[in-house]
Amino acid sequence: MKLFIRDHTPIMVTVIVQLLAVLFIFWLDGYRHFSVALYALFIGLFIFVCYLCYRFISHRAFYERLSSRFQYLEEANQTYGDAPLAAALGHLLKSQYIYYINRLNSYEEQRNMHATFINQWVHQMKTPLSVIELTVQEEENPHFSSIREEADKLGKGLEMVLYAARLETFEHDFKVERVSLKKLALQAIHENKRLFINSHVYPEVKMDDDVVVESDEKWMTFILNQLITNAVKYSGGKNKKVTMAAFYRGRGVFLEIRDQGIGIPKTDIKRVFHPFYTGENGRIYRESTGMGLYLVKEVCERLGHHIDIQSEVGVGTTVHITFSTTLHHCKENER
After folding, report:
1. 213 backbone dihedrals φ, ψ, rounded to 5°
2. Model pTM greater than 0.70?
3. What is the pLDDT of residue 237?
4. Above 90 in pLDDT, residue 261?
5. Alpha helices for the chain (secondary structure H)
6. CB neighbour list of residue 62: distance below 8 Å, 6 or more residues apart
7. Phi, psi values for residue 274, rounded to 5°
8. Domain span holding position 50
9. Spatial separation of the C-alpha atoms in residues 213 and 183, rounded to whole Å
10. Which of 8, 172, 271, 278 has the fewest CB atoms within 10 Å distance of its CB?
11. Rounded distance, CA 267 to CA 59, Å?
12. Could you give the number of structural domains in the chain?
């Protein structure tokens, strides 16, 4: 109603001024029958009001549409009356809706093709990588040791690319189940044992066997691998430890991964989860991509877990993951 009044205010003023101007001209000509003049003015205003009522009724849906926002995209297919202006608006919105849907389908098809290509490419790269690893596995030559180290880096890079591509279809690629955090921690340490050995960093696990959460085992393994890789890479010296601890806090489970590394400057701590952000440490360690913590943050949010990071330069970094959906203690379940 407000939009209708604002839209017709100029024509209301114009009609009233026009009627008064006609009466004024008759008055200047010597016409002095005020009752007839007022009756004529009343008839003119009555006809104009009837026109406004007809226009409001015929364009009501049109003005209501212009006054409100879309709640759903499909609302663009609604009709807004048979009036020419309302029909033109409906036709325009329908054409834009069809155009948008076609573009959206096109982008979706391109994204799926890209994801399929990335998945196939990563799997194709894993085959020669596996051959390289098998070839140098038993060799003791220092040159082969360097090849093994670089092959490990290549494998982790391929894994990051694969999981980044899968993140776009995350809702089709996860399964929530009972997961033992200690089992995942030991598995992640085993997968990164060569990294620990070459970096002279030692893992330490402080958690009970019965600390169980509800999560996706595959994605949680990816998260732990990324966090362990960062912790070892930035440990910054020999005989350092990477400690993984898990314990119950209230009705939730608290997972902590602590290193004794170089730490993260305060100016960078708020942006470490941003994509491609490497910060000051990234200038020291040139192989940093700035994608590891970003992917970890994205996966945690989609799994419903909360992650935060605390760090002090020269002391180390601690990553906390809080599981909001947990299972009861195994012993309590047995009871």
Report:
1. -130, 170
2. no
3. 66
4. no
5. 2-28, 34-58, 60-67, 84-136, 142-166, 181-191, 193-199, 217-233, 266-269, 279-284, 292-303, 330-334
6. 80, 81, 83, 85, 86, 89
7. -80, 145
8. 2-98
9. 12
10. 172
11. 57
12. 3
